[in-house]
Design goal:
The complex is a heterodimer of chains A (354) and B (306).
Chain A: H1 9-12, H2 17-20, H3 23-39, H4 43-68, H5 76-93, H6 104-135, H7 139-158, E1 169-170, H8 178-197, H9 199-209, H10 211-216, H11 221-244, E2 249-250, H12 257-270, H13 275-298, H14 304-327, H15 338-353
Antiparallel strand pairs in A: 1-2
Helix pairs in contact in A: 3-8, 4-8, 4-11, 4-12, 4-13, 5-6, 5-7, 5-11, 6-7, 6-11, 8-9, 8-11, 9-11, 12-13, 12-14, 13-14
Chain B: H1 2-32, H2 39-57, H3 59-62, H4 65-91, H5 99-116, E1 130-131, E2 140-144, E3 149-152, H6 153-175, H7 177-187, H8 189-194, H9 199-225, E4 227-228, H10 232-247, H11 252-272, H12 278-292
Antiparallel strand pairs in B: 1-4, 2-3
The chains are: A mainly alpha (354), B mainly alpha (306).
Chain lengths: 354, 306
């Protein structure tokens, strides 16, 4: 009798290996198309959903550095600003250009994607320039340097005519749509998930747990940290670029330290290292002030209390960080992920059926 | 030439203030290996305490010598108390936890203070900057030529106060029992505890000392700038941190030199380039220092002990 070969895990999957990389994207596209069709005549809802989506991209990408690698960047809004301004300026200049062999709407989308990518790459380049000196040193330096970087961006924007100085940029073509935003949300989450499962992710994890030990095990700590930082900055740039294409105006006020802190709070609340946590916390913290504002307006608080929501939000974020660190430093989800729980149920059922 | 001299004087005056704030960062980093992000915001709270005291004293009283002393004393004592509470309730419970938790806590406190002070709830000041009362009435102390070079009395006084505080600190750290305990804790706080040094008390006192220094420096800054605002702590604090890194963080004379260097560089950029770029200079300089000499001018990049 022949002994059966040891089952290779790959063999159980019904999807051919060549398609597996693309499969999630192929599955997501029709869902997004349906979603876009549903959202098409609800301008406020699609605006709000886009904001939620952008915040999810920001939180998930920041989580790659702050959560998975255990470094602490607090200047994510700076990279967002780079993406927003670079792609905004590009889109403004390409506004009247169209690819003649395509319908106008499609050609607009092509240029939109190009300017998104350029914005993302510009942010990634900045990430490299900022990350290289500070990631060679201990973690605290990254915090200060990224904070300083955000300030430099603000000063540069305020001193450059092409970026509209303090007034900001307006008239950027509004080519973004919830479907496009969520396509990038999806890509960001996919990349984050693939990183966690790869050897790259395990190196990041080792750095997070103990940098000295990781180095002793032969992990190129600076290299991995810089790469994680560049990936994270790239997606922050994409988020900024998306943002620039659905808000009427971008100005330096949209990308201040407050914005960076908002993202940090999302990541810490969700649990440092948990992509699921980042998504949940980003959604929750974006919708909560909105909800409270509408609640107060409904209760007839004459706008005064509704306006206070925005003011009170910030000190509350600060106290929330302190309280979390004292009571539950691992955040809501710790390092757990939803997909660590789900697939364990599904195969079991399958096995039962077979 | 006269212009150069004037910039030199202004730069030194600004630099001594940065140096004082930088000393606070360096001292806390020395004993705890923690970058106290909230340091600048503690300073801001101190300035508001001084502001309230100056108003309570009234116009005549506050510009007298006794009045100035009272303003400084209230602000410094109040800040020392604030520093004590922050250390006791936010940092001490996290001392044996991973360093990241303490850093996040510090960032949280900084954010809560700087934005909490912007709420308009009646007893809080609100977001708008306010004019700081003229505690020291500005008088031209020295005029060279046809107003080519002007040295104001407050520049001299703040330079004097800053130098006095620094000399006092140097004496405290290197000549007293407490200073020796502080240096021991900074070397290794576990071993220091085994040698019978009350580490908790030393760390708390270091925090109080650094907060009091910050309050003093903040008042000097407010006198120079003639305004107070809830966000001043963030900016001054960051620049002072840059100064501490330039000098080599954890190194006391280094912080002073770093502060002076930063003050001069900023002043020359404002004087000879463009004033709108001033805020970017400090951070550009920081990135440069980290690239070329990450340990700062005097510090060493210490190998991490396992």
């Amino acid at each position: 009798m022949e002994t059966p070969a040891i089952p290779v895990p790959e063999a159980r999957s019904a999807v051919p290996a060549s398609l597996r990389g693309l499969l999630p994207v192929l599955l997501a596209l029709p869902v997004l198309a349906l979603f876009q069709w549903l959202m098409s005549d609800a301008p406020f809802a699609s605006y709000l959903l886009s904001v939620v989506g952008v915040n999810i991209i920001l939180a998930v990408s920041l989580n790659i550095v702050n959560g998975m690698t255990g470094q602490f960047s607090i200047g994510h809004a700076g990279f967002m600003a780079v993406g927003a301004y670079i792609s905004g300026v590009l889109s403004l200049n390409l506004k009247d250009v169209a690819l003649s062999f395509l319908p106008v709407a499609v050609s607009d989308q092509v240029f939109f994607v190009v300017s998104l990518l350029v914005g993302g790459l510009a942010a990634a380049l900045c990430g490299f320039l900022v990350g290289l000196p500070s990631l060679r040193l201990r973690g605290d330096y990254l915090a200060i340097v990224t904070l300083g970087f955000g300030e430099i961006i603000r000063v540069v924007v305020q001193n450059t005519d092409a970026f509209g100085r303090a007034l900001g940029l307006s008239g950027i073509p509004q080519t973004s749509s919830p479907a496009m935003v969520y396509f990038w949300v999806f890509l960001t989450v996919l990349v984050a998930r693939r990183i966690t499962g790869s050897s790259h992710g395990r190196s990041l994890w080792a750095i997070r747990e103990d940098e000295v030990a990781a180095e002793a095990m032969g992990v190129d700590t600076t290299g991995y940290k810089v790469r994680a930082f560049v990936i994270s900055s790239f997606f922050a740039g994409i988020a900024g670029a998306l943002f620039a294409h659905f808000v009427p105006i971008i100005n330096p006020g949209s990308f201040t330290f407050v914005k960076s802190m908002e993202i940090v709070v999302m990541v810490v609340l969700g649990g440092l290292g948990s992509t699921t946590g980042a998504i949940v916390a980003a959604t929750f913290l974006t919708l909560l002030p909105e909800g409270m504002r509408s609640l107060f307006t409904l209760l007839g608080a004459e706008g005064s209390l509704a306006q206070k929501v925005d003011q009170i939000r910030m000190p509350v974020y600060g106290l929330l960080l302190v309280a979390l660190m004292l009571a539950r430093p691992q955040g809501l989800f710790g390092t757990k992920e939803i997909w660590d729980v789900l697939p364990r149920w599904i195969p079991r059922k399958r096995r039962g059926l077979a | 030439m006269a212009q150069l001299l004037q910039h030199l004087i202004n730069g030194l005056a600004a630099g001594t203030i940065y140096a004082l704030v930088a000393l606070g960062y360096t001292m806390v980093y020395g004993v705890l290996k923690l970058i106290n992000f909230a340091h600048g915001d503690v300073m801001m709270v101190g300035v508001y305490m001084g502001y309230a005291t100056a108003f309570a004293l009234g116009r005549d009283m506050r510009s007298s010598l006794l009045g100035v002393a009272v303003v400084f004393a209230v602000a410094m004592l109040g800040c020392a108390l604030l520093g004590f509470f922050i250390e006791r309730f936010a940092y001490r419970p996290l001392r044996e936890k991973p360093r990241l938790t303490a850093l996040i806590t510090a960032i949280g406190i900084s954010f809560a203070l700087s934005y909490g002070f912007q709420l308009d709830l009646g007893f809080l000041p609100g977001a708008a900057p306010r004019a700081f009362p003229e505690v020291i009435e500005p008088v031209e102390w020295l005029v060279i030529g046809d107003r080519d070079v002007v040295v104001w009395n407050w520049q001299v006084i703040s330079f004097g106060i800053a130098v006095a505080l620094m000399v006092g600190l140097q004496y405290l750290v290197f000549r007293t029992r407490f200073g020796r305990a502080m240096r021991a804790v900074s070397w290794d706080h576990r071993v220091a505890a085994l040698m019978g040094i009350p580490t908790d008390r030393v760390i708390a006192l270091t925090f109080m000392l650094s907060s009091a220094l910050a309050a003093g420096a903040g008042l000097l800054y407010a006198i120079k700038d003639t305004s107070v605002s809830p966000l001043m702590g963030l900016y001054v604090g960051l620049k002072a941190f840059v100064a501490a890194v330039i000098g080599g963080i954890g190194h006391v004379p280094g912080a002073v030199v770093g502060g002076l260097v930063l003050g001069l560089v900023e002043e020359f950029v404002v004087g000879y380039a463009a004033s709108t770029w001033r805020d970017a200079v400090a951070f550009g300089f920081l990135i440069l220092v980290l690239l070329v000499k990450p340990g700062g001018l005097f510090g060493r990049v210490a190998a991490e002990k396992v």
